[in-house]
């Protein structure tokens, strides 16, 4: 197994702590949002880059995770962390269901199906305003009783770390191998004894539960939730993050999320033009740098050189 | 019952427009073997092209429609030349994935570009022909009649082009086999540009026709795009006649769904979801689409 | 073959299987059986249904009617991955490797489907097979960078990781350089000698008859001849099928 080098991890952790001490609460907020998108981009990379399932329904799961948690907390006065956990579980179950339904769909059919699923979710959330408050947005209780950003920052950092470790453990497990085999050739994977049905359900369940967790945390951090979280534009943003970073490496996808989010803020003066810039950047990356901009750099950092997932 | 009649007539018009959009999508699929996730945005661009041809160039609505069709063709052809050429290269791996992501990225980029250039507020181009027509209980605006009538003409033109002209035969040949088409002297590259351009022109025509009815906004392409997927999958990927039939059917069904849905405040939103639900059910039952022609595998 | 413990034991059997694609009947009531230890050549002109039959036997396709038995057990509705676990290994007509995974990783995928084996054991077994196939020096290369013949060998190796009792090879010599071809033949014979059963699809009657102990000929979805290579060579129906279509 590829081991992330200890010094690199320590350096990143130190950088994260130092960052928290020196920046304003505004840039702490940017970092928190970046980390949430980091989880979303990395989990989409797991599903698309590793397992080859190009789903456009990922943000619908983030949205579902958020609404599930918010509504459960509102109705049953469940403690917020339990609400978030329930949102995660609901997404895992629905995700595996979608994975099962999509079994025989390939390439564009899967993309169309998941896009349709996301649209249905968005339409229902918009229309049932008696429950969701529709486009005006649902008010969500904050996770913490304090307006301070620093506690949220460390929670986000912890969540990101836990999610990344879990995802890369999965990516380097047997099932991670099977995901990549299925991405390359489903028939050959089945001929090799891989339970394709189960692997796809696992991939969707895992990716969707991370999306649900990220969505739930986002809702309880920001304090308001609109159906726009599951819109095609938000999906496009996450796809752009993952692709700019590199969809076949989880840390690179997180880097892509941080890069895009930071640039978005830095280019605030450019107004709405920055969204066009990201769109164009995405197109240029797809057109000329298919492996992403960060993935090669990350691989060099980890040196590795040899194959990923090498068995020792 | 009168309401249902009006809804059926509206649904017929809507169905014809859906068919125009879907035929563009299916043509692109047949020739280039990709699903264009930016098709709805070309529809949106067509609407704005017509609007600005009227507002800035001072054209009257019908010439503006022609200008919008031409501009959409050129835009689509330009996008094809700059972004889609890797699809034809032997060295490009994972072409299906490339086609999905590049067109999805394009849709996001175009939508946000439109947001800046055209602004977020709905714009309504002037009517083609002002006024309404009434036959007994049936009332239709002239704009809907124009949209339906011109839409039908456009569909007939496509069928004519595909079956009677050299360009249409070339497109059909390339859609069946790139290699054999090249052997008989058809330049596949030209066919790709033509196919994608024609697809864009059809989307643009639909957008320009719908402008005076639904007004224009940058996100107006999202729903027709999903509707077009429904239709194309219902009618068979790559089949022009299938898309025409399925388009009209979906338009009618959705309008009647709206008419008969018990809760009128929700009816309109759920009529969109209705088509999407049909799509999901079809894909669950037939994961490669209904009546799909020869090319199941995209690569 | 003759020295196997139960000489007549049938390993795999297709009983009157039919498979249609749209209007075309690809496999039309085929009855076929292979005994343990046989090396059967399955030949026939292009489009005669050979690959479809292989897909039916491996579970990559389900028959419209008819039944398939593996070692006496009914497996008609058993999915491909389960049949693989029961020892049915296969290769594909056009090599279907995990192209962006390394040579070693390609070998590990089937190995890892055995949950009780540790990675060390699987890797050691994979390396042993790679040495047997002469691919051990390539283990860190991505599979897509191999030559056509090396890809065929790697596919064979991947199938061997299942420790198969039955190997179905779909055109193992297609597009293979003649020098590598002899290497593949030699390895097939060695594996056969170690007790594995083979079904080898080829459309070239000349090559396969040197290898096979029995030839089955298909044309238009049906079996038109079945017997020793010498018998089949002289069969008029076979000559007609090859000349006529």
Shape of chain C: globular
Give the ordered list of helices and strands of chain C: EEEHEEHEHHHEHEHEEHH
Number of helices of chain C: 9
Provide a count of the helices of chain A. Answer: 14
Number of domains of chain A: 1
Mean pLDDT of chain A equals 89
Indicate the overall shape of chain A.
globular
Query: Average pLDDT value of chain C?
Result: 89
Category from helices, strands and their pairing of chain A: mainly alpha
- Amino-to-carboxy terminus distance of chain A: 7 Å
Structural class determined from secondary elements of chain C: alpha/beta
What features would you describe in this structure?
The complex is a heterotrimer of chains A (312), B (299) and C (245). Chain A has 312 residues and is an all-alpha fold. Chain A is built from 14 helices and 2 strands, in the order H-H-H-H-H-H-E-H-H-H-H-E-H-H-H-H. Chain A has one domain. Chain A has helices at 6-22, 25-50, 58-76, 80-101, 107-127, 129-132, 150-171, 174-184, 186-191, 196-222, 232-245, 250-266, 273-288, 295-301; strands spanning 138-139, 224-225. The termini of chain A are close together. Chain B has one domain: ABC transporter involved in vitamin B12 uptake, BtuC (Orthogonal Bundle). In chain B, 74% of the residues lie in helices and 3% in strands. A two-stranded antiparallel ribbon of chain B has the order 1-2. The model of chain B is unreliable at 292-299 (pLDDT under 50). Chain C has 245 residues and is an alpha/beta fold. Helix content of chain C is 36%, strand content 25%. In chain C, strands 6-7-8-3-9-10 form a 6-stranded mixed sheet, with helices on both faces. In chain C, strands 2-1-4-5 form a 4-stranded antiparallel sheet, with helices on one face. In chain C, strand 4 (65-70) and strand 5 (73-74) form a beta hairpin. The chains are: A mainly alpha (312), B mainly alpha (299), C alpha/beta (245). Chains A and B meet through helix 5, helix 11 and helix 13 of A and helix 4, helix 9 and helix 11 of B.
């Amino acid at each position: 197994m590829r081991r992330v080098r200890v010094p690199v991890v320590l350096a990143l952790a130190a950088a994260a702590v130092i960052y928290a001490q020196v920046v304003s609460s505004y840039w702490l907020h940017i970092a928190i949002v970046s980390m949430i998108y980091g989880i979303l981009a990395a989990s989409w990379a797991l599903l698309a880059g590793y397992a080859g399932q190009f789903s456009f329904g990922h943000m619908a799961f983030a949205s579902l995770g958020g609404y599930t948690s918010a509504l459960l907390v509102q109705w049953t006065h469940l403690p917020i962390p339990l609400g978030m956990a329930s949102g995660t579980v609901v997404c895992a179950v629905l995700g595996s269901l979608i994975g099962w339904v999509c079994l025989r769909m390939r390439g564009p059919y899967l993309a169309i199906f998941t896009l349709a699923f996301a649209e249905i979710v968005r339409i229902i959330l918009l229309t049932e305003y008696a429950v969701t408050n529709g486009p005006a947005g649902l008010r969500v209780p904050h996770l913490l009783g304090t307006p301070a950003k620093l506690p949220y920052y460390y929670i986000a950092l912890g969540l990101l770390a836990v999610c990344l470790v879990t995802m890369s453990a999965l990516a380097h497990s047997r099932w991670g191998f099977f995901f990549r085999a299925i991405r390359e050739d489903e028939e050959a994977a089945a001929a090799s004894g891989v339970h394709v049905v189960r692997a796809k359900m696992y991939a969707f369940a895992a990716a969707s539960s991370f999306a649900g967790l990220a969505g739930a945390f986002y809702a309880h951090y920001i304090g308001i939730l609109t159906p726009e979280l599951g819109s095609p534009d938000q999906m496009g943003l996450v796809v752009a993050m993952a692709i700019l970073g590199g969809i076949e490496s989880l840390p690179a996808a997180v880097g892509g999320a941080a890069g895009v989010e930071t640039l978005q803020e830095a280019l605030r003066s450019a107004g709405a033009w920055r969204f066009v810039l990201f769109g164009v950047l995405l197109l240029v990356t797809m057109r000329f740098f298919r492996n992403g901009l960060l993935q090669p750099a990350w691989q060099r950092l980890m040196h590795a050189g040899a194959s990923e997932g090498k068995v020792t | 019952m009168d309401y249902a009649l009006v809804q059926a007539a509206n649904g017929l018009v809507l169905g014809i427009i859906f068919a125009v959009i879907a035929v563009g999508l299916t043509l692109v699929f047949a020739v280039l073997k990709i699903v264009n996730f930016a098709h709805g945005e070309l529809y949106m661009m067509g609407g704005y092209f017509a609007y600005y041809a009227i507002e800035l160039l001072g054209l009257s609505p019908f010439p503006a429609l022609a200008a919008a069709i031409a501009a959409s063709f050129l835009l689509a052809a330009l996008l094809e030349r700059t972004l889609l050429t890797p699809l034809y290269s032997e060295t490009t791996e994972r072409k299906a994935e490339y086609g999905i992501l590049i067109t999805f990225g394009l849709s996001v980029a175009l939508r946000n570009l439109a947001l800046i250039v055209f602004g977020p507020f709905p714009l309504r181009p002037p009517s083609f022909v002002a006024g309404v027509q009434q036959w007994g209980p049936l009332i239709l605006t002239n704009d809907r009649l124009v949209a339906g009538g011109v839409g039908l003409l456009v569909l007939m033109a496509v069928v004519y082009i595909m079956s009677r002209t050299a360009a249409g035969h070339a497109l059909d040949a390339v859609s069946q086999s790139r290699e054999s088409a090249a052997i008989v002297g058809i330049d596949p590259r030209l066919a790709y540009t033509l196919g994608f351009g024609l697809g864009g022109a059809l989307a643009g025509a639909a957008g320009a026709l719908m402008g005076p009815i639904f007004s224009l906004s940058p996100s107006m392409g999202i729903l027709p795009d999903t509707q077009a997927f429904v239709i194309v999958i219902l009618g068979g990927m790559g089949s022009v006649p299938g898309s025409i039939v399925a388009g009209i059917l979906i338009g009618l069904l959705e309008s009647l769904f709206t008419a008969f849905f018990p809760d009128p405040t929700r009816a309109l939103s759920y009529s969109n979801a209705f088509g999407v639900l049909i799509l999901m059910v079809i894909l669950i039952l037939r994961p490669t689409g209904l009546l799909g022609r020869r090319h199941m595998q995209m690569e | 073959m003759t020295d196997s413990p139960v000489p007549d034991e049938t390993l795999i059997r297709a009983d009157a299987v039919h498979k249609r694609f749209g209007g075309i009947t690809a496999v039309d009531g085929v009855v076929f059986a292979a005994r343990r230890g046989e090396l059967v050549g399955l030949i026939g002109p292009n489009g005669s249904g050979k690959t479809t039959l292989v897909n039916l036997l491996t579970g990559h396709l389900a028959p419209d009617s008819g039944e398939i038995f593996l070692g006496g057990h009914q497996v008609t509705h058993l999915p491909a991955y389960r049949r693989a676990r029961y020892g049915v290994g296969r290769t594909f007509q056009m090599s279907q490797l995990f192209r962006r995974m390394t040579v070693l990783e390609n070998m590990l995928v089937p190995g890892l489907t055995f949950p009780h084996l540790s990675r060390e054991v699987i890797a050691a077994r994979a390396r042993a097979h790679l040495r047997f196939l002469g691919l051990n020096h390539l283990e860190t290369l991505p599979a897509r960078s191999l030559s056509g013949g090396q890809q065929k060998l790697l596919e064979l190796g991947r199938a061997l990781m299942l420790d198969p009792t039955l190997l179905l090879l779909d055109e193992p010599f297609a597009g293979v350089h003649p020098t590598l071809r002899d290497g593949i033949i030699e390895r097939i014979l060695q594996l056969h000698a170690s007790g594995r059963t083979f079904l080898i699809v080829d459309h070239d009657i000349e090559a396969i008859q040197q290898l096979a102990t029995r030839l089955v000929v298909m044309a238009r979805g049906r079996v038109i001849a079945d017997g020793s290579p010498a018998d089949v060579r002289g069969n008029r129906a076979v000559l007609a099928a090859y000349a006529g279509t």
